[in-house]
Amino acid sequence: MWDGMTLVPGRECGGCTVCCTVPRIDQPDIQKVSGATCRHRGAQGCAVYETRPQVCRGFYCAWRTVEIFGDGWRPDLSGVFPQVETRGIPPAFGMETGIDLMLVGNPLKTVRQRWFQDFVVTGVMNAIPLFLSLPGPRGHHAAQVLLNTEQMRGAIARGAVKDGLEAALKILRGWDFQPAGMTHAGYDVST
Known about the structure:
The protein is an alpha+beta fold. The relative contact order is 0.18. It is built from 7 helices and 8 strands. Strand 1 (25-27) and strand 2 form a beta hairpin. The chain has helices at residues 54-57, 62-65, 75-78, 107-111, 114-125, 150-157, 161-173, and strands at 25-27, 30-32, 41-42, 45-46, 80-85, 98-103, 130-134, 143-146.
């Protein structure tokens, strides 16, 4: 949810519609199950953009709000849906926000890319809370693991960050995805 962060100048969603499919929306005025495409998503983006619901007006992925992500990180291009994370951050970090890197493209290919590995190394070594996640099946919660672990720091020290990321991905692929029920009803835009 948008919390007043500044948008990075020059970055526009363009044809990216990842946020129209991946997340779950459970608000009184609109509902969409995770993994379902919003019925308002058109070929070039949101078909009701000018009148879209407030929850959609207020959401921006981290690529739009965090300058450390380069232009190539746009979710539809990179296969990574970066989000500012505020939940599950261990108190030892002394900060309230981190970054979730949700793999929405080809997960194994992504974790084997040098640009992705370099980002993880920089984040972990600078004690920025980093999470790796996979979307769950339609209607289920995502799987998420913290990357700032002794195992990952050890893999980085050995020059084996790819192995550390593949091990984290293996955990995510074996996840017991839990159903994500809805509290609200009335305007389900899931297709």
